[in-house]
Amino acid sequence: MSAKTSPATTDLQHNVTIRTTEMHTSGEPVRIIDSGFPQPNGSTLLEKRNYIRQHLDSYRKFIMFEPRGHYDMYGALLVKPEIAEADIGVIFMHNEGYSTMCGHAVIALGRYAVDKGLVAARTCPETKVAIQCPCGLVQVFVQFDGNKTGSVRFHSVPAFVFKTDVAVGVEGFGEVKVDISYGGAFYAFVAAEKLGLNLETACIRDVVDAADAVTAAVKSQVEISHPASSELAFLYGTIVTDGRDDFSEDATTNVCVFADRQVDRSPCGSGVTARIALQHHKSVISLGQVRTFTSGATGDVFTGKAVEESTYGGYKSVIVEVSGTAFYTGSSEFTWEPGDQLGRGFLVR
């Protein structure tokens, strides 16, 4: 066991106070920053994302890492969008850095935006919230429900398949064939049985070890490109599935391992988007066919379906609708006392 501490920086001061709203979507945390995080410079979201990485990363560690967070914490910083039709912009953050898309956070942010009055609520049947993510504009639809069940659906950016049946040499597993698909972020998909695992019985640590090995192999052996920006051209993680890709009314299971061995407690919204695109590409589902995806971590579910065919940068793509639920768990106010060196943030793994 080792602890990784945040190095000393000059941009984080002892008089910092950061307030947050705490939510979860299917068990996956969403720490939404209400105040106290400096607004980043930049004319685009990708420029703002890079500015935070280069100049304000100690703030990410302050609220994501222990003792305020944990290894698998996830956060969202609202920023001013540059797209006129967007209601809000967002930068996502996690244990390793900053992602380009996050479905579980988008589901929570849709509800948050309506409840906080950032978007005027409609009483029937739902309120539309346009969220600009680093990958592009995402349309979110928040159900009106007096009982606050947290039901939200979203239409993500065009999703497409990058490559299928890619053979990579995976340390400890030999040659493994994976599919690589994009749902706002790139994922490698591999059936558990190809790794000698059964998702119903396997220890989650064994799944994480295998997924991490696949991610490392793909990153080192496959050059990923994105038609719009090189900033989007990286493998975010690996999703281990139960292999049930043929269309069925029964649920199919995802375990998403992303960033630095971070485990998504939800079925993974951007992963579901990418997997629907993959299944549509393989002609096992048609437009409008709903699939249910179960989280291998919590057992909670998202549903997904392809709602529109399109082309994107030379790729055949689909617009995917993902549905899930988000709930509030509380609010926080974080401070840092002088003399508290561990208060900068650290991780134990």
What does this structure look like?
The protein is α+β, with helices and mostly antiparallel strands and 349 residues long. The protein has two domains: 3-156 and 329-348, Diaminopimelate Epimerase, Chain A, domain 1 (Roll), CATH 3.10.310.10; 159-324, Roll (Diaminopimelate Epimerase, Chain A, domain 1). The chain has five helices and 18 strands. It has a 16-stranded mixed sheet that branches. A two-stranded antiparallel ribbon has the order 1-18. The N and C termini lie close together (6 Å). Mean pLDDT is 94; it is low at 5-10.
List the keywords.
349 residues, Diaminopimelate Epimerase, Chain A, domain 1, 16-stranded mixed beta sheet, two-stranded antiparallel ribbon, globular
Number of domains: 2
Count of separate DSSP helical elements: 5
By secondary-structure content and strand pairing, the structural class works out as alpha+beta
Number of strands: 18
Gross morphology is globular
Produce a short descriptive summary:
It is built from five helices and 18 strands. By secondary structure, it is of the alpha+beta class. A hairpin with a 2-residue loop joins β6 (126-133) and β7.
